[in-house]
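User: structure tokens for this one?
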Amino acid sequence: MTARLTFARPTTRFTLLSIYGLIAAFGLFVARFIPIAKLLQPWWGCPFRRTTGIPCLGCGLTRAFDWEAHGHFARAFALTPLGAMAPVISGIVAAWGLAVIAVRAPQPDVHLEARDWRVIRWSLLALVLSNWVYMVLTRKPS
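Assistant:
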């Protein structure tokens, strides 16, 4: 794998990373302080799971995000291990993105060859599918 990682200070405060950071910070704020699940209760649920009895690839992501925002890390991880990483990654992106806005913190620039990107894509696909198999095996049919 031939990778080159560099860090450069952005010339402007509003870069793609800072925009992602603002979105991630907003998502974490909403998950922590606004009871979305209670507000949307009448419309809540997965149509795929209702129809087939098995969870879809995204089942439990909102719940895991909400539980971690409230400090229930083990509970979120037991629900969906890969989904439990979403708030952690969101927190990192939010902090870094806000640092770009506040002090123009350096941003990473990753350069990989096409073959390396292909390996990463297939690895991510394998992670998502293994997480889905875990969810199917550990959840009771609805």
